[in-house]
Write a structure and sequence with these properties.
12 strands; two-stranded antiparallel sheet; elongated
Length: 401
Amino acid sequence: MRGGDLLAFAAGALRGHRLRTSLSLLGVAIGVSSVVLLTSLGEGARLYVTGEFALLGSNLVIVLPGKSETTGIVPVAGGVPNDLTLDDVEALRRRVSLLSSVAPLSVGGLTARFEERSRDLTVAGVTAEWKRVRRLELREGSFIPPGDPARAPRVCVVGAKVAEELYPGRSPVGERLRLGEEKFRVTGVLASRGVSVGLDLDEVVLVPIGHHLRMFDRRSVFRVLCEARSARDVEGAKTAILAVLRDRHGGQEDVTVLTQDAVMKTFGKVLAILTAALAGIAAVSLTVAGVGIMNVMLVSVSERTREVGLLKALGASRGQVLHAFLVEAALLSTAGGVLGLLAGWGGTLLLRGLYPDFPVQPPVWAVVAALVVSVTVGLVAGVLPARRAARLEPIVALARR
């Protein structure tokens, strides 16, 4: 039997049992599509995090109050013997020459009101440097002015959605906005940006950080984003920041200083493990599909015993019979794999349509691995039935009913 004859024989056998073939195809397709979809989510999460941090530039150093006891990203709760104050921020600005920008942040929730309209939202306390560090753009107006945070004017910058909901059909620039019991004058509107590094910039109000700390009765800032002058200065800036704050806090190293590269590497490792775990979970369904193919092929051999006997009586060798059934199993698993890839790709397109800001994308290795594994599973599952068919003696096989 030539290659074309083997394919024709296998295809004819599969067409002869359409329901059984369809169920086997479905099992393989579900397994492959699960691998594609789940790894797409993991890869999408990695690309999303990488893209968000890339928007912050490449020379970022993050300072958080509290000392991390692990290699994680956030410090342990409750371990903050000293606050990270605006005086500390000013000391970093003056004493660490490797930094080009020092941008503190304080975050809280309040009710914003304008005339009869109101809504609950996030209020962030920032300085003028925040615009540069976060790569923010204004749709109109101006940002918070530079200067001493303690003497800053009562001005604010609103997100795009806040402007649309509280000031429909008009420009908010120059208008008054009540935040809790405090009144601020709107000087600018942020360009629409969506959620960026955990903060929805469309639904936020930015105020001078000095006013923010007084409004919420706080001394410590939430975190400080520092930008080194160049990529070569990042590690030196980190060391200098720790030295300055250790000196100011009585010799205690009670802050966590993270570089952007370290954060991205940590996220990368976590998400790589997550993606691999998701692929492993999905691969279980491929294994189940392989067991299904084996059962189908065993039943097929049992039902086609006389057919095998006739082939051998006509001169087919053991090897040819073995190859015929292996080709049938491979054809079944390959067709199911291709259908699974198409279904998985369709699922990723659907997710992209539903969540356009989330970069759902199947990694190339997962697509290739899913198809290769599906074919391999089919071949392995077909070995036992194929060997059983090849060992049948023609006289015994023809005598069976």
